[in-house]
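Weekly structure sync, notes
Attendees: PL (lead), two postdocs, one rotation student
Agenda item 3: pending single-chain targets
PL asked that the sequence for the first pending target be pasted directly into the notes so everyone works from the same version. It is reproduced below exactly as submitted, 110 residues in total.
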Amino acid sequence: MSASVGTLKNHFTGNVIHSKMDGNGHYVCQVIGFNIVFMIITNLNGYNTNTENKSLPDSVEQQVLLWLNKCPNAFLLIGGNFNVVINNEIDRWSPKYQLKCLFKALYAKT
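Predicted structure, written out during the meeting:
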């Protein structure tokens, strides 16, 4: 199970008008109002498999479109961790380890 990131804590003075999340914590969608501004905030936490990640946007899209129909002037903010990387080797290791490998490669060429 993936844990959704908590939003709107501490000193938030607006109102959470609607909130929806899936049972496994892979997304949380909220409609918030602040003064006269409405925002739809969505946070996604990707699955660890490509197959499940491909279906994740579809499940969120229905909810976002429903709220956009009710609040057509709302700002839309989407963020999260999609568990998608261009290069697994770079994403897998810490920056310190990556620098060590880079220096080894540079010294091996000289």
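Discussion points:
- Residues 15-109 form one domain.
- Helices lie at 50-70, 88-92, 95-109.
Action: rotation student to compare against the earlier draft before next sync.
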